Amino acid sequence: MFVFAMTMLCGISICSMCMKQLGTDGWSRIVKIEVVEQPCNKSTVPPSEVQFVHYPQPTTYSREECKCNPVRFFAIISSQRSGSGWFETLLNSHANVSSNGEIFSRKERRSNISSIINTLDKVYNLDWNSSASKNECTAAVGFKWMLNQGLVANHVDVVYYFNQRGVSAIFLFRRNLLRQLVSQLANNHDRYLKQLNGTHKAHVHTSHEARILARYKPRLNTTSLVWQLKQADEYTRDALENLKSTRHITLYYEDLILNRTKLFDVLDFLNVPRRKLVSRHVKIHTKPLSEQIENWDEVYSALNGTQYESFLNAADYII
Ligand SMILES: *[C@@H]1O[C@H](CO)[C@@H](O)[C@H](O)[C@H]1NC(C)=O
Ligand SMILES: *[C@@H]1O[C@H](CO)[C@@H](O)[C@H](O)[C@H]1NC(C)=O
Ligand SMILES: *[C@@H]1O[C@H](CO)[C@@H](O)[C@H](O)[C@H]1NC(C)=O
Ligand SMILES: *[C@@H]1O[C@H](CO)[C@@H](O)[C@H](O)[C@H]1NC(C)=O
Ligand SMILES: *[C@@H]1O[C@H](CO)[C@@H](O)[C@H](O)[C@H]1NC(C)=O
Ligand SMILES: *[C@@H]1O[C@H](CO)[C@@H](O)[C@H](O)[C@H]1NC(C)=O
Ligand SMILES: *[C@@H]1O[C@H](CO)[C@@H](O)[C@H](O)[C@H]1NC(C)=O
Ligand SMILES: *[C@@H]1O[C@H](CO)[C@@H](O)[C@H](O)[C@H]1NC(C)=O
């Protein structure tokens, strides 16, 4: 049973969107979303795409000569330490793409579905101001959303919103969950130690900084390791299952690293011109796992012969 405050949107943001309750089938009373957009000529847009082509009218500025440039809405859906920071900087190096970062890292923005929808509306109306905003001629706008930031918890409403408003999802996950775990532990470690001149950095721009952060070798709890990997695996699988009815593309960090051409698949998916994408991010953990885990021998025997064995030897980097 889902209960919503239906009125909030129309009050705050110029009533660009109104929501009504629908007493439709069975289990869920959900929201109807109506958006007033710029009247632009859609006759050249193929019928299958019409739902995904938008002409937002921001309230904070005018789109000027680009007001009838179509805009696509997207969300990068990922989990911590899956390369999504790197991926987002690559997308933002494109002149027509604006990805506004991890906006739901702030708790109050995800404390209930109304806050979530308010925030999404602001982003997709091109009214979200961040260092990534490109404003007038943005052709694809979005942000980065971690599964555990209110997304899994509200998946029914989010899927409904995405499908109603024509938001496309970019799933970005990591195949090697053991490497992801090492990266998480190292990141948590630095959160406390702040090894780079007293500042915690989740991402770095020089190999010098990368080396400092990679010096830490976590010790993994081998009693709970298999269970932990299984939990992480199932959490992601369930999430993808629940979100699969949205228009989406699925990417894996390892595949992107080995084959940058896959980035063009993303640009095509967003319908923006193909461009070379660049990022200043430098990968932190580049060594074999055996050199990055304190109790490697124990970890090896804990995973040897299990379904996660392949994580032990796989490299996700090119030297
Ligand atoms: C929309 O564009 C098409 C093709 O460019 C044109 O034939 C049509 O007259 C336009 N419609 C309107 C309402 O301007
Ligand atoms: C991309 O941005 C440039 C410059 O801001 C603009 O001239 C161009 O029309 C935009 N392209 C698209 C597809 O919107
Ligand atoms: C939703 O959360 C926001 C921010 O935390 C709060 O101001 C608002 O009252 C909440 N709304 C509902 C319906 O709980
Ligand atoms: C966006 O924020 C920056 C500083 O964070 C500010 O300089 C700029 O004027 C803001 N732009 C808008 C349109 O509010
Ligand atoms: C710390 O700051 C000093 C001086 O600003 C700089 O030379 C040094 O490289 C910095 N160290 C790290 C780890 O960033
Ligand atoms: C390892 O995990 C087990 C099972 O969750 C737990 O009982 C144990 O205390 C953990 N050991 C350490 C050193 O954290
Ligand atoms: C790299 O990715 C592109 C786009 O997905 C694909 O067409 C190509 O076959 C891939 N190349 C290799 C070597 O896997
Ligand atoms: C991994 O398991 C196989 C048998 O399942 C065993 O032969 C091998 O010695 C094990 N490797 C290590 C390093 O423990």
From TrEMBL:
<dbReference type="InterPro" id="IPR052796">
    <property type="entry name" value="Nod_factor_sulfotransferase"/>
</dbReference>
<dbReference type="InterPro" id="IPR027417">
    <property type="entry name" value="P-loop_NTPase"/>
</dbReference>
<protein>
    <recommendedName>
        <fullName>Sulfotransferase</fullName>
    </recommendedName>
</protein>
<keyword id="KW-0732">Signal</keyword>
<feature type="signal peptide">
    <location>
        <begin position="1"/>
        <end position="18"/>
    </location>
</feature>
